[in-house]
Design brief:
This protein has 647 residues and is an alpha+beta fold. Among the domains are: 274 residues, Beta Polymerase, domain 2 (2-Layer Sandwich); 89 residues, no CATH class; 77 residues. Helices cover 54% and strands 10% of the residues. The longest helix is centred in the C-terminal third of the chain and has 111 residues. The relative contact order is 0.07.
Amino acid sequence: MRSCGAGSTICTTSSMSQDVNKQQLLSSCEACFSYPCNLIRSLIFEHALESYRHKLHEESERLFNPFPRTKLLRFWETNSACSEFKEYTPIDFGSLKKHCQGNDSQDPACRYIFLQSKNARARLEFTQEDFNYILSYHQVMPPFLDLVFTCGRQEKLQDFHYTAFRHENYLHRGDPLLQDMSKITPLGRSGRQIQHCYNLHSAERSRDKWGWSIRQTVVFHSFDVDTGRSVWIFVKGNDIIENRIKTATSSTRSTSMDVNSHRTLTGSFDASLIVHAHIMEWCGEQWRWYINEMEDRLRNKAKNAVLANVDHLAGPEMVPAPSRPGTLILPSSPRRTVSKSSPASSPTRLWNSFTKRSIGSKTEKTLPVVETDPSRPIHADIIVEEPQEIDYGGNEESIERMFSFEKLQDLHKTGEYMQEALMVLRQNRNIIKEIREHYSTLLESDDFPAEIKDGCRLGMPEFSQRALSIERDLEVQQSRLETLNVLLEDRSNLFYGVQQYASMQASKHFATNAQASTEFTTAMTARMHIMTEKMHEIALKTGHQTVSMHVITVFTLLFLPGTFLATFFSSGILRWYDEEDELANSTYSWATEHDRLLLYLEILVPMTVLIIVGWLILYLKSRDKDSEEEDELRTSLDLEKGPENPQ
């Protein structure tokens, strides 16, 4: 009787405890905005819970859309009879709350919750109230928030591919009181459960310039080791995982995840392992193709550093001859013709062709400056007034474009993609290894149910083998990336070397041309000095001649009046009287012949006017001709400058 009484007391106490636990759960759900401080139990310290709550409040605007047009929040769960999977999408918070706790029935045997955003860097399409309530109702462990914080709206990448595996286990096999603290029989919760969360990354196709994007899936899983009820929460920027889970649960080929598997404890545990395997396979399936395209991209961007004829592109044959008007070249050079180019050909444009590549130009050499005797005149045939512009063709590419800084940036960008992928592969391997070791440790634990241990003798080794296979595949892809990374470093160093070699060769060629220019300037300076001395001598002779001309001019001016008068008197216009009778009849000793004077003036005046007019015509024509020549010279100079092409 005592024992029966004691048993009745224990049953009554257990029933009261479960009612209290259920009331605590409902109170926790009502206080969902204080998550995770509202959790009934947690292994996290109080100050850490408060820190999580404060951080979630700070990040809420970035993480959640307060007014989503369509909530991307869906349930995929078994019905009450565990005969099929059904989908449910809550319209608002009230419908979500009613679906979870609106009736007194137990939790479904398996519940998948898919939380989704429009893309990997967009806010989750549901409210913070929805999120807090789901986590509060299912008593989700607080470290799950560490992984959720990597989601949401991000203008720049945050928490650069942060990954983690966290777990909290509540087995309590040896202490029934601890188990009763969270046991809620009406909901099918025994209080003994394992729960863990993690995130994995994979390469997925995208529409950006690169064509690939590394995206993550955040996973939370809770499994009741007594009732076999499991809860899954997936956070992702698309519906890839959701579609795979729905397909696997409806598959007729493989029934390891169908609804019937959740009718037994062992079947439900095996189904949980298969779900983990699906996530693991997703994180490793696209890396081969991602690395293949990265390898192609690297080889295409670095091929110039390996295949380009750098000696030709940066060699002396690509340096044009000095193009300054008046440059001296060897008269015996058979490869260059002396001609005057069109005004569009300018020294500046020819100098800009320094880096251009020309097929068949390897035999051309820089033409040296001739050292000539300044005292001897230089023949016009050995003076290049302006060289013709070299036509390099439209298909040729310069060393500056082939090894530009932009292409070097592309190589570094490819290196960033490689380092990112290497880091993700290492992290994925570590997470998969932790999951595998965690389940191995659980099966070896004395607190873990013997029924599951016995029922998973085949399922657990198969899961471990599959996880190891994925790890090895990720290791192979990691080795490929490491090899490509070494190749990238070699190509980058070669790229740097080509740039330095080209810079050194350019400096050498510029120095050579500068030396040639200096020698030319020296020769021209010496010649100008000789010409200046000769001009000085000519100026002295001209001065002496000018003095002589001045003397001649003075004497000419002295005799000019007398010469004019003698000519005029002897012209017959004046008649002189020789006899006395003629003198007596005249006041003067001479008389004017008016008819002769008139004839003289008739001839003199028109002739003078004609000479002046003729001179004026010749003067005006000469001035117009000089003006035209000046205009032509100005036009020629303008054309030589060429159009301004801003770089």
